[in-house]
Amino acid sequence: MLLRFDEYPYHQITASFAGVAGSDPQWNDGHYVCLSDQAGQVGLTSSLRLYHNNDVLDGFVCLRHAGRQHNIRLSRRLRPAMDELAVGPLRLEILEPMRTVRLVLEDNEFGFALDVTCRSGTVPYEDPAEVTRVDGRLISERMTYELTGKCEGWVRAGDERFELHATTDSFFRNHSWGSQAGRGGPRLYAAPTIGAKRRVPGVRQWVLFDMPDHGGFYFIDPSGRKASGQGAIMLADRSVPVTSVQHDLQFYEGGRRLRGGMFELTDAEGTVRRYQVEDLGWVYCQGGGYFGGFDDGLGQGVYRGDYHVEGEVWDVSHPTQITDSSGRTFEFDHAWAENFTRLTSDGQAGLAHFECVVITQPQEWSAQQGKTQQGKTQQGKTQQGKTSADA
Questions:
Q1: What residues does 209 pair with on adjacent strands?
Q2: Is the dihedral of CA 133, 354, 290, 173 positive or negative?
Q3: Which long-range contacts link 218-223 to residues 24+ away (Cβ below 8 Å)?
């Protein structure tokens, strides 16, 4: 199968761009795009991702507004429309590689939509490639780069429409690819790992931020991953490594959701930058299918028919509790959420995608990553998932 990309002389294996080198169902490649406005009216996470060996493309948008989170999850058969980064009403257009993308969610049955163009004025940050083996067994290998910048366009939630402006509002995105545990469906037949800890107690931070004259990224993981403690200040002409991260963070009651604080970065050129942090709200990526978050509990990268869509609306105004449309209140069995925060530094204002996770219990690598989570239920669906088999 030939794609338009096959016209270019950049092949890495003796196959067209329709295939990858191995058969691992966890192999995936895709974009994660987030944005927020300075006023704190809207914050959203989204993704479009290809699972070449499962013949699946899936995506999501999770939009926070006024203490409510609107979710849409979509999936389709990847081939033959493999070179279209689109599924149903959701699409990502790469207008200028490493510079400009356009994210569109057209009108849909879940009542929210958007059309936003994201432009970066800095060079990207290339994370170190990470390969994880447990007792010689390959668990995960992944490559990522990070970008941030300004966004403009509009977001609509119900009858309310919000304009985004490049002078004040920011996007945060990364592109990652590789074999990644927890995606591509359950590992039902492999023996579980023994004793290997994927997460250890502590405060994990994945922070991508945008200021008027620079962007930045840093990553802190108490489990000691290769990328932990690394990051960069992203400028128009260069990326300067971060050599030190200091932080003092405060949390809402319950100790799991970021409220504010500060962090301080020292870079390889000796510049020290200090940022004050103010919470603008959080988004649960479970609403996008993470942690087995699809209605069938199987997570991302699973074939659900030639086309599938589902979603719901949650009340997420409480720092730890979620309330669905039926009025039922619950908490997820994980602490993950993506905070959006306002930053101030040296008299300037900016924004950050501030993933800050307080891990209290160690978590092991599992041979069955992606299986139905214990306690996972049909959380306030506004519509049953539709597949080609249902039609």
A1: 216, 352
A2: negative
A3: 218/242, 218/245, 218/263, 218/265, 219/127, 220/245, 220/247, 222/359, 223/197, 223/198, 223/199
79-88 contacts, C-beta under 8 A, 24 or more apart? 79/1, 79/18, 79/55, 80/1, 82/1, 82/3, 82/18, 82/50, 83/3, 83/4, 83/5, 85/31, 85/48, 85/57, 86/48, 87/48, 87/57, 87/58, 87/59, 87/307, 88/307, 88/309
* pTM, to two decimals: 0.91
pLDDT of residue 365: 65
Q: Which CATH architecture best describes the domain 25-372?
A: Beta Barrel (2.40)
Residue carrying structure tokens 């009025």: 327
Opening angle at CA 184, ends 378 and 226, nearest 5:
110
Decide: 259 and 277 in contact? Cβ < 8 Å. no
Task: Give 91-134 pLDDT, tens digit per residue.
Answer: 999 999 999 999 999 999 999 999 999 999 899 999 999 998 88
Read off φ and ψ for residue 338, nearest 5 degrees. Answer: -110, 110
Cβ contact 92:100 at 8 Å: no
